[in-house]
Amino acid sequence: MMKLALLFFMVPCCYAVPKNMQGKVIIFPEESDTAHVKVTPMVEKIFFTVTVCLRFFSDYNKEQAPFSLSVPSHADGFVFFRGDGRYRLYINDRGVFFYGLPTTVNQWNSVCVTWDSGTGLAQFWVNGVPSARKAIQAGNSVAGAPSIMLGQDQDTYAGGLDRYDAFYGHVTDVHMWDSVLSPEEIKKYMQCVGTRPGNVVDWNNLEYTKHGYVVVEPKQTEICP
Q1: In terms of C-beta density within 10 A (0-12 exposed, 13-18 middle, 19 or more buried), how is residue 30 classed?
Q2: With helix as H, strand as E and coil as C, how does 148-173 read?
Q3: What is the pLDDT of residue 48?
Q4: If we measure between CA atoms, which residue out of 166, 115, 104 comes closest to residue 139?
Q5: Alpha-carbon separation of residue 222 from 150, 154, 179, 192 (angstroms)
Q6: pLDDT at position 91 over 70
Q7: Measured distance CA(119)–CA(114) in Å, rounded
Q8: pLDDT value of residue 152
Q9: Beta-ladder partners of 90
Q10: pLDDT for position 85
Q11: Closest alpha carbon to 69 in 185, 163, 157, 9
């Protein structure tokens, strides 16, 4: 009977139930090699085009990964880092740096990153400012069952977490699409007006599980102008 009771107690932790996260933030309050949020994608497919948007707040300026997508063949399937005065995007374990974009600490930053396999062009948008468009993995695809995490880089598929790469701060409004959003759509996201939800990851219908020291709370302040 004791074993059955223990099993009943443990089962709820193992299932992710979709939740409307509108008005909420995910807080990673300390550097950790365990704390992360595992997100279940709404679709599993081969990605030839991708857009990921989110907002982050941190007082830490070292390079850190708020979002990572790993696949069995590539630990860094689609991952981006911010900090040290720059942004960095990895696709299928190959990376490229983007310079001259806002990386303000103690302030909410709205970030979108896009990639199109057909042209090989990737681009960041931060607080409405677009980066130069740079070549990475032209003609390739991100294929295989995706493991998506918030707050950690994955050095191995669905694992290999490292405190050095951990995100230390707040994250909200996370969306992922299997297409490249137009500049007009990205500007709407930056301004919090009329954004269509992600069809791969949708913050307003987010299926996730928390691991380690992670806190979900209502937003304290307005983020968008």
Answers
A1: exposed
A2: EEECCCCCECCECCCHHHECCEEEEE
A3: 98
A4: 115
A5: 22, 31, 28, 11
A6: yes
A7: 12
A8: 97
A9: 79, 95
A10: 87
A11: 157
Mean pLDDT across the chain: 91
CA-closest candidate to residue 151, choices 130, 179, 170, 123: 170
**pLDDT tens digits for range 145-160:** 999 999 999 999 999 9
Instruction: Check whether 103 has a pLDDT greater than 90.
Output: no
Report the 10 Å Cβ neighbour count for 139: 9
The structure tokens listed for 24 are 């909420």
The amino acid sitting at 21 is M
Task: Judge whether residue 80 has pLDDT over 70.
Answer: yes
23 touches 173 (CB < 8 A) = no
Buried b (16+ CB within 10 A) or exposed e, 83-115: beeebbbbbbeeeeebeebebeeeebbbbbbbb
| Full DSSP string of the chain | -HHHHHHHHHGGGG----B--TTEEEEE-S--SS-EEEE--S----BSEEEEEEEEE-S--S-EEEEEEEETTEEEEEEEEEETTEEEEEETTEEEEEESS---SSS-EEEEEEEETTTTEEEEEETTEEPPPEE-STT--B-SS-EEEES---SBTTB---GGGB--EEEEEEEEESSPPPHHHHHHHHHTSSPPPPSSEEGGGB-EEEESS-EEEE-SS----
